[in-house]
Protein 1
Amino acid sequence: MQCKKSAHILFVFFAIIKLQAQDFKPGLRGGLSLSTISEMHANYKPDFYFGGFGEINLTKKYALQPEINYVRQGSNNVARNYTDPDTNTERIEHLDLKLEYLSLSMINKFAFGQGFQVLFGPSLDIRLNDNLVLRKNYNDFAFVAGLGYCMPSGLAFEARFKKGFLDILDSDYYHNDTNSHYLFGDYNTNINFQIGISYSFDTK
């Protein structure tokens, strides 16, 4: 259901940008999402992302690229201490935390040499779904940075890092006392790596 909504928004997004831009190339992107939540005892969560973009070429070396992406994030194997009400003893459970975002990004794209690209820009992430028990922020604001290589055909390979700035959950619930060699704190933010491909269509 969330994927259908994202696809519909994607179509409207492209239609609006196409009307506004002169040198415009629409495109699709997707790939592997590796994410975790900072300052917690947790493992990286492998999942996926997909979306679309509109490349607005302002010069030969610079393009502004609005994007809309569906991204699945979170953390696996989050250790949580709790008191068993039946035995009144301290126990540990391990949880997989899931987050789904509709990510609206404005990427600055600089081209160097034969197809190499440097990418960076802000992102507003609107939460679509999650399995968190206690939240601090439903949405997130992040910064994206990455590298890419684009072939003459329009096929490109990308590696990106996205760092959220908002505290997304209440760490009092996801508390871990037995983290002697793991950092645990109150400022729990999204960390996301994306490795994938994109393809831009020549509309001329």
Protein 2
Amino acid sequence: MTDPLPHPVLLRAGDLPVTRAGGRTVRRIAAGPDGAWLLSLLDLERPGTLPAAAGAERVLTVVDGELLVLGTGGREQALERHRPFRGPADEPVDVALPTGPVRALEVLAPREAVRAHVVVLELSPKRPHPVFADQLAVLLSGRAVLTAGGAAEQSTETAPGETTARTTGRTTEDVGVLDTVRGGEPDAPELTGRGFLAVVSLDPPVQD
């Protein structure tokens, strides 16, 4: 991407701006400069329509609920939980909820400028998961701890041939469900815990 994400920061779900329209509640998590891309949480409470975004790709991931059915151009696409789906956002999309309300993570990104990818993975309490620059990580379920702020260790020579290691400026903070971590480099923040994490990567488009 040409516009990197800002310094790593923890975005609390309870602090996100909320709008309601057409049977859905939208929580805006983050956006690129001048709205170049948009990451949101959608609470879909009843059947309706997702608006078009000309020139953009839409990546939808069901994070709560069982099934979401999208309809456009006479075709239907069923989305199961934790299985990201990518499609063009140039036309409105009809939404059906055959098993009840659904919560979904939505990424809108202009296809000529940004290629968005979403991966849902399981966290480990022993193996930290780094969140790199141009990434955002949303905790979908469970509990996690964020470690960030600097190099984890720094070696110091105390005598010829002897070194000691110490932590340098690292801080930890609890992460709740639907909280989001913005990545950074060279010292990427790390997440440990138990539960599922959606990692959103915002990369340059593939050149032909």
Protein 3
Amino acid sequence: MGEETVAGESRTARCARPDRRARATWRARAVAAGGAVLTVLAGLGVRAFADGDFAKYAGDALYTVLICALVAVLAPGARPVVVAGAGLAFSWAVELLQLTGIPADLARHGAVARLVLGSTFNAPDLFWYAVGAGLAGAVAALATSPSPGCAPRTSASR
């Protein structure tokens, strides 16, 4: 008796409907894709209007933010910590791969490889990737918080 009803439907039923979940999935993908576009624009802006260490390390953080946004597009239901962890793991793996020289060889043959893989290992980049992952995780947590009126499902609500 304690549940609110709207048009004869409980709040729990409204929040758990499959069509509502599908819309939430598409909304999450759209937000993540928009975040990816904004991240690329921010990166281009940093490159255009800044230089030196600020531009380099902002670019590192934004690289990881972009990877996190792409993870969120591919897995819109993933928890923010998983999105951030996947982005950080990928970024660190690429940076550590630079120790092998393979990315440097690939970078000589194409701009895309240079943009995605870089060419030279730089230990401080590992820190700035973590900064980017933390920022992306915080934004993902805000973007995926439950809508007003829809309490998160707990074991007690099932």
